[in-house]
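Issue: ligand-bound run for zinc ion - logging full I/O for the record.

Environment: standard queue, default settings, no custom constraints.

Inputs:
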Amino acid sequence: MTQKNPSLKELSPNVKQIIETLKTGNGRFVIGMRVSNITDTRRQELLAGQHPQVSLLCCSDSRVPPELIFDRGLGEIFVVRTAGNVVDDIALGSLEYGAEHLVTPLLLVLGHTRCGAVTAAYQSPDMPGHLKKIMEEIKPAIELSSTSVRGKKEDLVSVAIKQNVNRMVKIIPERSEILQHLIGKGKLVIIGAVYHMETGEVEFLR
Ligand SMILES: [Zn+2]
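Outputs:
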């Protein structure tokens, strides 16, 4: 049976603190006051190993670089990026590595407004080559949105972007026994968020 993520109130103080750090960093990004540590000293310190606090799945879109958006420095976020922030076995393996071996207590799934992959899945889902796999993975979010949104394409796509994030939050543990086990033991929480390209702000979905 799938382990349910705890509600926001039930989050451990540690995870709450990590989310707060991400929100604060995003706040600095929005006002153009980044302070993230990418110094030579920090790079040298990290030669001994990495201890990131967050695993993060986000879209490959060049306008959505997670370290910049959250104003985090070297060694702070374990990142997996795929077009449309969807997972396959290899992406799941990477997320398992982050949660199990690097012991990140938070896995954040980050979608974003104006996502080309989600828009393509709505407009022209018949893509050639391996792109087809990405479209297939986004399709359920499009279908769900089509039943709830009547109106402009932009409205449907923006709902689908959130649906796609929510779907990943749900199916990642369904597809990964390791991650489901960690959630069950209270060692991992998966949370969704959407980056608003227009303002620079990240909206946490819970
Ligand atoms: Zn995208």
